[in-house]
Amino acid sequence: MSPVRTIPSARVSAYHVPVLLAEIESLLTGATTILDCTLGGGGHTAALLERGMRVTGIDRDPRALASARERLADFERAGQFRALLGNYAALSDAGLAYAEHFGGILLDLGVSSHQFDDLSRGFTFREGAPLDMRMGDDSEFDAAELLNTIDEVDLSALLRAYADEPRAARLAREIVRRRSRRPFATADDLVDAIRAVLGPRSGAPDFARVFQAVRIAVNDELAGLERALPLLRDRLEPNGVLAIISYHSGEDRLVKNAFRDWSASCICPPKLMMCACRGVALGETLTKRPVSAGDVETEGNPRARSARLRAWKRAV
User: Across all residues in the chain, what is the average pLDDT?
Assistant: First the structure.
């Protein structure tokens, strides 16, 4: 029997278990400078630093950033690692110079294990958890404010688009009806509304879908990713690799479509007689299909089950 590859304990923090670590290491082999746009607990970054790479880590969550800096203090003192507070969709606001380019760029779009497990952050549907879900202090509103103020039509569209919820209109109507009597404040309020519409047999998968949809809206995740993709592409050095781990079909679709367009030599409308676009591919897609976590990894880290990894390489 072949040996099972395990994640070294030094790379696993209380904050986050790095997903698809071996695959990320393989894709970024050869790069000397890395931009980790979703630093979290620093699991991926720790592995890349151990390989001798220089890493700049960005995170919008100041608590995650502080935890990662403490964990990676030796690398920071040696000048091999630096940490910046900010959003990957606004790199210049995080203090990254316009002239800086990287051999590899990584996005792990999932919520960290610590954020899920910390009841006060409100990412979970566990009893009594506050409806917060903000990844950082830059969010304009929390989940409670969103659910208590959003228009019913907009809420229905949100649930349909981000949760793939077939009864989105009914659920939106129920939320509006309930909040008129008492504002939503805890996870229990949203769970009760879901059960009222989906029935008593509804359970964790249903709650997870709806809570994820609210979290995406609170943190402007899909719109932020769409804005960020071309900016990150342009931060790559020639032959640099952009690797993105997504957990939601909407995220994966944006990444897939962007990589497809960048890898095409012509993106003109089919009916156009002559090419009027750039006329050359910007690079190549390295993953023909999204890479998923294997059985061994998902057994040890169930949250890896929904992870999908895609990678793209910039042309010379």
Answer: 90
